[in-house]
């Protein structure tokens, strides 16, 4: 018999069956999920080396290549949330003393700075006020000045609602022989984007925004040029879990065990990516744009001002200035508690100054726009 | 309108609805999952800062404290699989030049060596043949010789099926003023274990074995003494995603955003931990032991030999020697293809020499033992 003499029941907490409110998630993500994705996620797991699971992984890779418009062989889902995929891009190519130039125009630019520093990079930054974008000339000047090995930019800044134009960046980076690293967390699946046409060498995203899947398995892609830098490292990748020299052997034809994949999340991600392929990228991008414009128009009718100039606004995430005298947090609280609608406040510099409203993936639907606008009208003006 | 001129449909793969075989997972994990866990996982997500989700996180923390028998405040689930939680233990407390002593007696001991090296540790090792355990005197001698800051040992070696006795280790580590780090990946929820009584400072586990949950959210715990080492670091934690100085502010009362938690996995983990609390640890440990003994007896009747001496055998994972002249891979393939039963071959040194049979969590049931033994009999002898 097993000894039980001194076992403690102190934390043997009595809990009820999971019982959560039916939220409409119109913040910066997670967004609500298509019922087909939830059903797929609840499929009983098979093993992470089962031939049937390896086929699921292959399908995820192809469907991700479609969604991202890339032919990169190393296009996979990292077994963590978007921040893990973000860290994976830096961890694999940054070696101590490498100059990394980061364009900071919001919270996630700062996160790139923090992460790159931890891998020993010589980090240089250029900055813009939160809500603005960089123009090509500024970036060219900075490349000329800093001669970085990597230029890191956020395509869709979740903290500001800004869409950074990518035109011309690939050519510039080729000219200055540096890798182009782009955060597509809030653009993949909702905003026009082509990794290969834009000359992007490293990109990451998440599952819970434009792709409409729960969080936890996160898209990652790396060009042949970036792989060359990985292969010519003088030091091992300083992060075991995210080491692509090991992970590529599990996702590639060798099928060498690295870690146990989050099986059920991959089921969900596969279903979410199937939905993207079924809808088609043009239609999906157009849907996001149309519903965002509907939102912007309605906000204007409520005398609310968008923080970002229209041409640089993300269709997936809109920042709205909190009017003078209005308690932004109280309004968001009312939406949540009275109408089960989640929107978010600002992050970092924009804390207390804006609300963040997301229309992402499955949630980018006109009924959600109408619901939100009318609920907002109620809590603001009645 | 959005330009669609140059979009490629090359990877817009036609895929069918997910359709996977009904595997009985009797390998080293993942194991099958209680239907209640799958149902919980398919609950529509709420936001990662929603008050109702924060309550779910609190429940997970308490239920994990119960399962691990610890009062450690920093007891959380890392947003990755077991290997991420493993890396988290080292990343947070290892600083460059720290002496880390690793007891290597299997594949996962080697992984600890690899990971600790990447964080700049001065790694020392002691070794045992795969299938044996360390005794206290050997460890004492090694502590005396190497004077490490951290002693790392694997409680339940998934590659060998060995259970390392933990008695006396806590006192030894206190005497030599070093932190005790223990891998409990294949023991938590299935093998008697008390973090606090054993004087363990750092431990990690996974969700897909003894806890009977899909993989992807992994238990991590850290004592006050280990937190002191974290707080007195001269260098930042060299891993952003797993940095406990940041993560503890999300799981603690401050609720500062760090990353978007894998919401639905936490729903599943909560339900799996509820099942542990409902059953009670003594009963659960006893169930694992009873079913393992049933398996061992049946294997002996089939003239199969367990690789590990009975007193050191894990109830969760049994290594069985492949008889001379038998093609181990072919037998496992037949079990999978003819009976939908997954068992695994050996890892590393034991590759080709043993099969690994798991009876973990929900799968530790007499009907699985009978099924496996009779299927094995068929494919071996008929």
Automatic annotation (TrEMBL), chains A, B:
<dbReference type="InterPro" id="IPR024169">
    <property type="entry name" value="SP_NH2Trfase/AEP_transaminase"/>
</dbReference>
<dbReference type="InterPro" id="IPR020578">
    <property type="entry name" value="Aminotrans_V_PyrdxlP_BS"/>
</dbReference>
<dbReference type="InterPro" id="IPR015422">
    <property type="entry name" value="PyrdxlP-dep_Trfase_small"/>
</dbReference>
<dbReference type="Pfam" id="PF00266">
    <property type="entry name" value="Aminotran_5"/>
</dbReference>
<comment type="similarity">
    <text>Belongs to the class-V pyridoxal-phosphate-dependent aminotransferase family.</text>
</comment>
<dbReference type="InterPro" id="IPR015424">
    <property type="entry name" value="PyrdxlP-dep_Trfase"/>
</dbReference>
<keyword id="KW-0032">Aminotransferase</keyword>
<feature type="modified residue" description="N6-(pyridoxal phosphate)lysine">
    <location>
        <position position="209"/>
    </location>
</feature>
<keyword id="KW-0663">Pyridoxal phosphate</keyword>
<protein>
    <submittedName>
        <fullName>Alanine-glyoxylate aminotransferase apoenzyme</fullName>
        <ecNumber>2.6.1.44</ecNumber>
    </submittedName>
</protein>
<feature type="domain" description="Aminotransferase class V">
    <location>
        <begin position="46"/>
        <end position="346"/>
    </location>
</feature>
<dbReference type="GO" id="GO:0019265">
    <property type="term" value="P:glycine biosynthetic process, by transamination of glyoxylate"/>
</dbReference>
<dbReference type="InterPro" id="IPR015421">
    <property type="entry name" value="PyrdxlP-dep_Trfase_major"/>
</dbReference>
<keyword id="KW-0808">Transferase</keyword>
<feature type="binding site">
    <location>
        <position position="356"/>
    </location>
    <ligand>
        <name>substrate</name>
    </ligand>
</feature>
<dbReference type="GO" id="GO:0004760">
    <property type="term" value="F:L-serine-pyruvate transaminase activity"/>
</dbReference>
<dbReference type="InterPro" id="IPR000192">
    <property type="entry name" value="Aminotrans_V_dom"/>
</dbReference>
<dbReference type="GO" id="GO:0008453">
    <property type="term" value="F:alanine-glyoxylate transaminase activity"/>
</dbReference>
């Amino acid at each position: 018999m097993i000894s039980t003499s001194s076992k403690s029941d102190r934390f043997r907490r009595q809990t009820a069956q999971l019982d959560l409110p039916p939220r409409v998630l119109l913040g910066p993500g997670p967004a609500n999920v298509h019922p087909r994705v939830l059903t797929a996620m609840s499929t009983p797991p098979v093993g992470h080396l089962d031939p049937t699971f390896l086929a699921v992984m292959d399908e995820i890779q192809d469907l991700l290549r479609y969604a991202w418009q890339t032919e990169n062989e190393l296009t996979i889902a990292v077994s963590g949330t978007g921040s893990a995929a973000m860290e994976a891009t830096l961890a694999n190519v940054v070696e101590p003393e490498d100059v990394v130039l980061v364009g900071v125009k919001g919270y996630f630019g700062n996160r790139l700075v923090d992460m790159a520093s931890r891998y020993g990079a010589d980090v240089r930054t250029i900055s813009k006020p939160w809500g603005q974008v960089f123009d090509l000339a500024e970036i060219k000047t900075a490349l000329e000045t800093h001669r970085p090995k990597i230029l890191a930019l956020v395509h869709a800044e979740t903290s500001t609602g800004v869409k950074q134009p990518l035109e011309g960046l690939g050519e510039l980076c080729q000219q200055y022989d540096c890798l182009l690293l782009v955060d597509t967390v809030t653009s993949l699946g909702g905003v026009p984007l082509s990794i290969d046409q834009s000359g992007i060498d490293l990109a990451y995203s998440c599952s819970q925004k434009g792709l409409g899947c729960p969080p936890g398995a996160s898209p990652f892609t790396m060009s042949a040029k970036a792989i060359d830098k990985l292969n010519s490292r003088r030091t091992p990748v300083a992060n075991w879990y995210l080491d692509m020299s090991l992970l590529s052997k599990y996702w590639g034809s060798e099928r060498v065990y690295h870690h146990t994949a989050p099986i059920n999340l991959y089921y969900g991600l596969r279903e979410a990516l199937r939905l993207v392929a079924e809808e088609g990228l043009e239609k999906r991008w157009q849907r996001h744009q149309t519903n965002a414009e509907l939102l912007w128009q309605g906000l204007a009718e409520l005398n609310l001002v968008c923080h970002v100039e229209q041409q640089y606004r993300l269709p997936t995430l809109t920042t709205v200035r909190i009017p003078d005298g209005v308690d932004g947090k109280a309004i968001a609280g009312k939406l949540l508690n009275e109408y089960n609608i989640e929107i978010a406040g600002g992050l970092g510099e924009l804390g207390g100054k804006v609300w963040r409203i997301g229309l992402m993936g499955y949630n980018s639907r006109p009924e959600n726009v109408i619901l939100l606008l009318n609920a907002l009208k109620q809590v603001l003006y009645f």
